[in-house]
Design a protein that fits this description.
Blueprint lengths: L2 H31 L1 H4 L3 H25 L4 H39 L8 E4 L2 E8 L3 E6 L2 E6 H6 L2 E4 L4
Helix pairs in contact: 1-3
């Protein structure tokens, strides 16, 4: 192993770590700035910035490996492990998101609750402010409570009669 190869690999890794953090922070701040215009929620912003950061980390890792003579074989092995890790991570990460999205769709489509309804869900009483893809916002006397849609589907929902 040549000292120059090692130095190139270290520089590639450091550049990837710094560049990944910097670019993900820039993306996160841009998305937060235009959050209302593009109707994107905080968890989605975090997801996109994290994906960008880790993509850059992975690319810098591959660039670092390519600095060595035996890099080709390692790239193949690392690619297989990486693809497997990404598949497992995606399945695990989207498990709750999919459950909440399906629950939200069911709540809205079946009109079980609607914005403006007075409800009690999981011990939280108040007026439904809005139902998004993943959460229900309930305006209570203490402020706004956010419940995942899947929690609402698993618990008893009490719709209170409103007098007009």
């Amino acid at each position: 192993m040549d000292i120059i190869q090692l130095a190139r690999a270290i520089v590639a890794l450091i550049a990837g770590i710094v560049g990944g953090r910097l670019l993900s922070e820039v993306l996160e701040s841009l998305l937060k700035k235009f959050k209302q215009r593009i109707d994107i929620e905080e968890p989605t912003i975090y997801l996109f910035s994290s994906l960008l950061r880790y993509l850059i980390y992975i690319l810098s890792f591959f660039v670092a490996i390519l600095q060595f003579e035996f890099g080709g074989a390692l790239i193949e092995l690392a690619s297989f492990v990486l693809i497997l890790a990404v598949i497992v991570t995606l399945i695990y990460s989207f498990k709750d998101l999919v459950t909440n999205a399906v629950s939200g769709y069911y709540l809205v489509k079946r009109e079980i609750i609607r914005p403006g309804d007075e409800v009690e869900i999981n011990g939280v009483s108040g007026r439904v402010r809005r139902i998004t893809e993943v959460v229900i916002e309930i305006e209570t006397k203490d402020g706004i409570m956010v419940l995942p849609n899947s929690v609402a589907m698993k618990r008893k929902i009490i719709k209170k009669e409103t007098t007009h």
